[in-house]
Amino acid sequence: MVVDPTLTIFEEQFTTSSKEVPIAYRSVAERLPPISRRSLKGMGLPGPDGKEKDYKESFRALKRMVTTLWREGVPIVAGTDAKLGGFVLQRELELYVEAGMTPAAALQLATIRAARLMKMDDQLGSVGAGKLADLIIVDGDPTQRIADIRRGGESD
């Protein structure tokens, strides 16, 4: 059994109002065309009046479940099912850290551990001669502070 929790989907549905851009997209929303920004609003579930706290608690419970699965050794992979997968994957990893994983462990879920689970670690998941790799330049150390994964090498 392998679990792909897609926490970002539940975060946007259970904790975002119809007037807000979900947290996963906030770092890039201002760089998108207006029509794209507008399409990001309204992604939350319209909960019954007075149930907003229950929805937010449901999301916190889901994060606790991921923590329990992780601590019990259940294999977890990082997925998103999102419109802008690369940006949302960053938030997914942040949520895993909020759930109790170390930043380094969260990064491994999206790289080498996923490759091993797919039995493709001879081709993917780490940098090495003859392997396929997508690389990004990060200004910081996401193995210590996961939010640094959002900090590209662009100048201020």
Question: Could you describe the 3D structure shown?
Answer:
- The radius of gyration is 17 Å and the shape is globular.
- The N and C termini lie far apart (44 Å).
- The chain contains seven helices and no strands.
- Helix 1 packs antiparallel against helix 4 (52-71), helix 2 (23-29) packs across helix 5 and helix 5 packs across helix 6.
- It has one domain.
- With 156 residues, the chain is mostly helical.
- The model has no long low-confidence stretch (mean pLDDT 86).
- The chain has helices at residues 7-15, 23-29, 34-40, 52-71, 85-98, 103-109, 112-117.
What's the topology here?
Elements: H1 7-15, H2 23-29, H3 34-40, H4 52-71, H5 85-98, H6 103-109, H7 112-117
Summarize the structure.
The chain has 156 residues and is mainly α. The protein is built from 7 helices and no strands.
Low-confidence stretches: none
Query: Could you estimate the helical fraction of the residues in percent?
Result: 40-55%
Shape: globular
The SS-based structural class is mainly alpha
Quaternary structure state of the chains depicted: single chain
Task: Kindly report the average pLDDT value.
Answer: 86
Order of helices and strands: HHHHHHH
What is the strand tally?
0
Number of helices: 7
Main beta sheet, described?
none
Distance between the termini: 44 Å
